[in-house]
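During the no-cost extension, the postdoctoral fellow (Dr. R.K.) reprocessed legacy sequence entries with the updated structure-token encoder. One reprocessed record is reproduced below for audit purposes.
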Amino acid sequence: MSRGVVLWPDAATSAAVRDIWEHLAAMGLPSLATYTHRLHQPHVSLTVAEHLPPREALDAVAPVPAGRIRLRVESASVFPQGMLFLPCVMNRGLLDEQERVHKAVERLAVEPWPYFEPENWVPHMTIGMPYTPEQLARALPEVLDRLPMEGTLDHGGVEDGTTGENWPSPSGGPATPER
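Re-encoded structure tokens follow.
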């Protein structure tokens, strides 16, 4: 079981990511539209651990995010083992929020994932996995045709990657100033 503190994009950006998922799934390619529990939401994970108590984590970090964060996606990329993703263009608001959240939940995280340590973190939204080289050759042009993408990361919470269950942050979100 993995749980993480995540940022969810605004409605229009979320719909654009879901459109990519659905389009790739219709082509018979892996996407989060059809992966595991099928309850995935477009998100940027700030920290992930094998276990993270959701209520305690939200108490430690609330609100998530501390302020609206600009989101821009200009490219697609692939992690080892064929995970296709949309890397987020780095900005100060994104870096500050990840560091703040990571520090706040560090003592609560059981078996934290090393890829989410601040010095290792690559902010991204997952498209699908696992992709073979042949599938990537088909998927990449489809994804790139839908970029660039701009929006905001305006609400967040804790999400369980195994079950799809989530716990939204009770405060924070669109009412706070953009960073």
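Residues 11-26 form the longest helix (16 residues). The domain at 3-167 is CATH 3.90.1140.10 (Cyclic Phosphodiesterase; Chain: A,). The remaining legacy entries will be reprocessed before the final report is submitted.
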